[in-house]
User: Fold Eukaryotic translation initiation factor 3 subunit D from Kwoniella heveanensis BCC8398.
Amino acid sequence: MTLSFSLPPIQDNADGSWGPSTSALPAQFKDIPYAPFSKSDKINRIADWHDPSADTAGGRGGRQGYTQRRQGREAYGAAEGTVFGFVHDEDEKSFSLVDSGARTSTRGKAPIRGGRPLRGVATGRGGRGRGGPGGRGGFGGRGGRGGARAGYGDWNKPQRTRDSSVTISPDWQVLEEIEFARLAKLNLSVSEGEDLETYGTIQAYDRAFDRINTRNEKPLEILDRVRYNTSTSDDPVIAQLSEKKAAQIFATDSILSVLMCAPRSVNSWDIVFERRGDQLFLDKRESGPFDYITVNENAADPPVDSDDASNINSAGSLSLEATYINQNFSSQVIQASSKAITPKPNPFYSADVETEPLASTLYKYKKFDLSVEEDETFDIIVRTEADAYLGKKDTLVTVKALNEFDPRAQGGAGKPLDWRKNLDTQKGAIVASEMKNNSAKLARWAVQSILVGAEQMKMGYISRANPRDAQRHVIVGVQSFKPTDFARQMNVSLANGWGIVRTIADLLLKQPEGKYVLVKDPNNPQIRLYKVPDDAFEAGVDEETIDEEQMDQE
Assistant:
């Protein structure tokens, strides 16, 4: 039997290009899409569902993908339409995980230490504080940072949701929403401020505290010293300057620093703006966040609040602890035998009412020029504060304190260096860690020190004597910083801060007279401006006062 074999018809591409001929295309292949390819390509797979990008060094397997071409060489026909491309984005968007974790309540109660309520922390618009631990919740102490950095095993953790620092009423009108990305682009160069008035009493800093180290630690003392954190509108000196039309804007350094460092904020805060004629006042709200200090606000896994009042490592308890540590430390470092300098008496102190001595505090009322045009007059008056003087009375110092709590607790920054063992030898690493975890707080402190014109910022390192005891602390070190150098090291831009202040002021001065509230969104990097009724917060104060009177009667 003879077998015959005949060759199939061969299509010759007269054009000379690699691929089928456009002029003599077989009928069975007509209208079938074709993707150009190079002769060097390996066409050994009909369908490849593998993602080459996953085989890079940071992807699956940690090796270079076998489908990757040499760098700088583009595949032939890459510019053609990818008719065979498989698009899977929409499928992945519909995928979600079931949250099996137990959610943590973000509603906090007033912390209690040692079974007794804490006392002495300033509260309210015209409140004052003493050295003893006490007070209410902390600065933005409700909840923690949402959307924390995810790691292996974190896929089933519930997303942390924080509460707003103020309850948003349905009748509040939203005027503006500004993303932090927009705020970060603002800039305004402002020269050094002009000193208008100086009040208060200030004493010398005790240089002996600069010699404290881990081998020579010193217990933190609880001192009863009266401190004031009066709001702008309740300041009698600002009221006099307002009557003289000395400026268009009035604020305190604690309120202004939060606004100037707003893009670093994670926790929610709110500032009350009151437009009176052509003047604008920046105030803190009654029982608001400005009387307390945050702890590890910017950490990847910050402390969370708890309904358990005995939890000393909750956000509210840590905030309260940090506040009274700062008040006591700033009073303890004062040299008692030094000369007290009193340019003008403390405008908030009344000898008939107060029994405790005043803390060393100097109030400088300074005017800054925020004008943009040469013929423009646009000034802001800020009440700034210094804690002591160093050597000469003109060399001002601000005193702040960082506190170390239980590193094993949530929010402990993931097994950081033990201060009592490593502060002397690895201080740089500890400072870098604090700058990362407390970026917003340290930036505000730097801005406040620069506004008052302080030559140095004394930073104390305060650790718990026992990680499980939040009432006894020891001073393990003190470090000195120049505020301008410290701000530069943290990449804090005063020009950006002044640009934010001027932008918000322009926005509010275009509005009619009345009361407004600027609120940091609790879960997103943005701020919102609301128009609120003139009695928006007065009703709450009255109700609270009535409740307290009823409790006293009972």
